[in-house]
Amino acid sequence: YAVVLSLTVNAKFSGDPTELECKVMNVSNLRSGRLGVSWLYRDVVVSTHTIASLDENGNLVPGKTYKSRVEAGLITVTRTEPSTFKLRLLRTTETDAGEYTCAVTAWVPSRHGNWKKVAEHVTPALKVSFANK
């Protein structure tokens, strides 16, 4: 499968929303498998943080740095179609400018009744900054 990352809503000013979409293509060969996603952020200092993930069961797992914003609903991670994931920052701040990546993981049922990771595709980084700059 292939993964395409795009910026669907770009914040013009601090406080505006930002939305990124991660679309999985050619997913038909997954059959009984499931998809999970991790949203990653890399800042200017080039340290990478996990914003949040959806695991193989669709559970939301917030990253350490973003836990309070995810729990407060200021950052949402959703699946809009079986193979489309969205990351939405409700109020974008200066500190959110940087590079975003989405990593999509394919899981298949194992013989023991749990899920086994079979593949992971990480998109090239997408630079996000305010549209007015």
- Could you tell me the radius of gyration in angstroms? 15 Å
Helix content: under 10%
Number of strands: 10
Supply the number of helical segments: 1
What is the rounded distance between the termini? Answer: 35 Å
Unreliable residue stretches: none
Structural class: mainly beta
- Please describe the biggest sheet, giving its number of strands, its sense, and whether it closes into a barrel: 6 strands, antiparallel
Basic shape: elongated
Quote the beta fraction.
over 45%
State the order of secondary-structure elements, H for helix, E for strand. EEEEEHEEEEE
Mean of residue pLDDT values: 91
Organism: Cirrhinus mrigala
Keywords: Disulfide bond, Immunoglobulin domain, Signal
InterPro entries: Ig-like_dom, Ig-like_dom_sf, Ig-like_fold, IgSF_V-set/TM_domain
Protein name: Ig-like domain-containing protein
Please characterize this protein's 3D structure.
With 133 residues, this protein is mainly beta. 4% of the residues lie in helices and 53% in strands. It contains one helix and ten strands, in the order βββββαβββββ. Strands 3, 4, 5, 8, 9 and 10 form a six-stranded antiparallel sheet that branches. It has a four-stranded antiparallel sheet with strand order 1-2-7-6. A hairpin with a 5-residue loop joins strand 8 and strand 9 (115-122). The mean pLDDT is 91. InterPro entries: Ig-like_dom (IPR007110), Ig-like_dom_sf (IPR036179), Ig-like_fold (IPR013783), IgSF_V-set/TM_domain (IPR051102). It comes from Cirrhinus mrigala (Mrigala).
